Amino acid sequence: MNCRSEVLELTVEARQVDEAMLALLHTILLHRSTGKFHYKKEGTYSIGTVGTQDIDCDFIDFTFVRVSSDELDRVIRKAVSEFKDALGNTGSDGMGQISLEFYQKKKSRWPFSDECIPWEVWSIKVNVVNLANEQERQICREKVGEKLGEKVINVVEVINRHEYLPKMPTQSEVDNVFDTSLKDVQPYLYKITYQITDSLGTSVSTTMRRLIKDTLAL
Question: Does the model's pTM come out above 0.90?
Fold first, then answer.
């Protein structure tokens, strides 16, 4: 199986990391989740509804839509919080990557553990810049909102392509394809990982600052 790989890149200031990552991760998971399966008998099932919720950002001019599941939100927020803390330990400017990997399990014979086979990976590269004053932060607030809008459209376009998705499982195999641990929603099996780079690429940092200065000059 070929694993699809998509890369998104965003430059933000430190206080925007949480909201930017939550907006993108929740957007992806909104399209990679279903309602709970209710099996009547093997091979026959109904799928529950998935509620949605609009979330307004505090530090970015942006509103995103997420699955209306507090359980799922807590899991995503915990991962994003750990990523932000790790980024913060690098100093004022830093760079990192958080990845959302979807996979399915392949049963192995005893005594071997199940094999996890990835089928789609989203990598979000984050560049953190330190801004000088409130005027620059206000411009960054607007510019990051515009960029997030572009990224969300990009995510939706990619997901709407007719490419591989795991086939709908039988009742005995549902845990090989979906995370059934949540009571109100059923995302495809996924894991979130991250890595941190000590220093920010000069070109990325300079580009954002030039964008802000050009806006100030208008």
Answer: no
